[in-house]
Specification:
The protein is an alpha+beta fold and about 450 residues long. The radius of gyration is 25 Å and the shape is globular. It starts with a helix and ends in a 6-residue tail after the last helix. The chain has 13 helices and 17 strands.
Length: about 450
Amino acid sequence: MSRRWTARVALLAGVAAVAVLLVFAGLGSILLVAVGVAGLLLTAAGVWWMLTRTGGTRVLAVLLVVAAPLAVLALYTAAGLLWVVLVSLGLWALAVSAGRAALVDDSAPGMPERPAGRARRPFLIMNPRSGGGKVARFRLAERARALGAEVVVLDPARPQDVSELARRAVGRGADLLGVAGGDGTQALVAGVAAEHDIPFVVISAGTRNHFAMDLGLDRQDPATCLDALTDAVELRVDLGYVRSGRQPADGGAERVFVNNASFGVYAAVVQSPAYREDKARTTLEMLPDLLTHHSGARLTVRAGRRRLTDPQAVLVSNNPYRTGDSAGLGRRERLDSGALGLLAVEVAGAAEATDLLLRGGHSRGLTAVTAREVVVDADTPMIPVGIDGEALMLPTPVHCRLAPGALRVRVPRHRPGVPRAAPPVDWRRVRRLALTMGRVAAGRAPA
């Protein structure tokens, strides 16, 4: 379907959603909307209290989270208007989805790529425990060796320094490095590849594979990533670097990140020794004090001219994440923009938490900016930091910087690709697109 027709569907569905309410509920439609909004507000407030309270108050908050939407449904059913609400919501969801799809610009250029020759001495490191055993399940080591690669499969019983393994391989003449494993291992070896300016191959054998996802690789079948050894194109992508303490930029070792560095609530929770044993229970036990600043470090963040005080959670990413919708959050359209992304959450109470849950990226409690450098300081000499999922304790302040185009990445010529981001709905643009493109198609210039 063309963008013009998609925009028309969005407009028709939006009008129909309102019409269904007005025709079948009349003036009662105002009451229907008010009841629904009240239910959402109570549910969102209940979620906040559930996360920040303990004991009996938390139990009451859980009951509120369950009871509020059930009460709304009961009122709609008693009025005989539940079907009206469901139909109207379905039409509105279609309108929003179609409106966003209509605004997607497929002509926007992706990351530049250039042809790449075949590596003569590729060296791959594979973690057999990553992704629940994907290395063995997809026979990645055997397939890579058949393509001429030297492969080292890590021994879970003997921890090894993957950075040192990569450096030794380069010293023996390796002209390409690659990893089948999680993003933390990817980052360590990518740093060595960038240091020696040789290509790097990502094999999506981890659990989440965020880096592979944003490179447009196939996350379901990691064996397809091995095509980068034989039929590849090359991308130049940015790398993030973290250094800690007050030493100058060239005065201490830096840690590479391909995805992000997290500070605050999440970093503190995963740092807990109990987290690995019982993630849910540990999180629920620690959140109340962390979210209300009764425990944990109080952070200060500087990003360019922006200064943030006491955010509960901070995420510094290698290129910014999408924030226009919850479906896009966690994805980056590009890895070569030359800027760090900064997401910071600062919520002081139930009202602000409700605003954040309902409005997302438009909430006052969420700061989303870009910068070339971000500095995170605290009122404690050490703070927990999560770097590509690995929990560390680092001296303050912690400096995050971006190195534009630092990493050469080889990817298969034929791969799924990165889906285009659907922007938030702008109904004026949707209407103009539907009508203007129609006139152009009919041979008349737009007004």
